[in-house]
Fold this protein.
Amino acid sequence: MRVKNLARTGWMLRGIPPSDSETVGSHTFEVVFLSMLVADKLNEAGIQVDTLRVMRMALLHDILESVTGDIVKKVKSSMANSTQLEEEAIRELEITNYSDLLKELNEGKSLESLVVKLCDNIATLLQGIRYLNKGYTSVLDIVESTKERIETALETASISEEARNVLKSLVTKLVVSEEL
């Protein structure tokens, strides 16, 4: 449960003090909660989503950071051995039975993985807005880039228009509620 005390690096790099910094554990909780809500709303709209699968992916989405530490996206994407590092972390944590879920999440091709990736970004965006509201203007670049990632994911995802519309509506409601 090392992620409970592991501060998210992106915020720390932008001057958020440790006493106010979001942890990987608190971020994961928010991602799981948002993922559950979004999956349930999709199911209510008649769009089939495996909510249990979504929640498992959401719980696992940052678990490897308990071994690797929180590596910022830009650095992680430039690492030649990031896949090998993740495989080693999976073995170290003895969670090889979840390898397929993590692979599905990383590939991002299923609706379930899209929900989790979207909620991961929504949680980051919401936390960035919270920091902006507290006066931490140094996080503006994270807020803007995360918003762009959300918009791109919603526009380019291989999903039905009905699912896209439900997701866009939910994202708008979540972000507007946080801005107030």
